[in-house]
Specification:
The chain has about 270 residues and is an alpha/beta fold. The protein is built from eight helices and 15 strands. Helix 3 crosses helix 4.
Amino acid sequence: MSGRLFVIGTGPGNPEQMTPEALAAVDAATDFFGYGPYLDRLQLRHDQLRHASDNREELDRAGAALAMAADGATVCVVSGGDPGVFAMAAAVCEAIENGPAAWRAVDLIILPGITAMLAVAARAGAPLGHDFCAISLSDNLKPWNIIENRLVLAAKAGFVIALYNPISRARPWQLGEAFKLLRDHLPAATPVIFGRAAGRPDERIAVQQLSQADASIADMATCIIIGSAETRIVSRPGRLDLVYTPRFMGGEIGDRSLPAPPRQCRLP
C-alpha cells in the first residue's frame, strides 16, 4: 500500500515563519529527508528519523524519499524557504516522471512556504510591489549565457529582480558579473537590497546603489533584490528607510494620474 510524501519548506529560518500546514506535516511524518542544516531547524520526536544528505544530492534524496513512501511510510522532504522555488518540489516531480510506476501512486502533498525574497522584501519595505521575477545565478543546471540573457531582458522589461544562489566558493564571480551587466541597463542609483538570513538572529540587511553594489558582501545565505527604474527610497527620520516599487508605472492610464518618475535615491 502506498504511503504519503509531504514536501515542505521551513521558511527563511525563523521558526515563527514556518506555516501551520508544514508543522502539521512534520508532526505526521515518520522519516525526514533533506539537507542537514534544514533538518536541524525541525524539532523532531525520538521516534522520527532523519536522513540527511548533501545539498547537491537532490535527485538521490527525492528518489530515496519516494521509495520509502511507496512502501507505505509517511515521509517528509524538507527544503528551506518555499519547496517550489529553486528547491526540492521540482526534484521530487522530476524523480516521479522518470522513476518507477509505483512512485506515481504515492500521495504527494506539496505545501507552500515563505521564500527568501518575500522575507527580504518585507524587511526592506515593498520592493516587489510591482512586477518582478526571480532568477538563480547558479550555472550548475543552466549555461551562464542563458542567465545573462534573462538578466538583460528582465532589466529592459522593467522587472524588479530577485537573485537566488548569488555566490559560492565554487562560483565566486557570477554576482559581480551580473551587477556589471545590469549597470548597462538600469540607472546608477537603482537600489540593491542584500538580505542575509532574514528573520534569523544573524540577519543582515544592507541597501546599496547598483553603481556601487559590492558582490563580496553576499554569500549563499543571501537573497538579493535589484530594483527597477521605478523603485524608490522613502527616508524616515529615526527609522530605517523604506524601499518600495510603486504599484503603477509612471505616466497615465485612462484618467488616472500615476506617480511621477522616482527622485534620486538616497542610499548609504
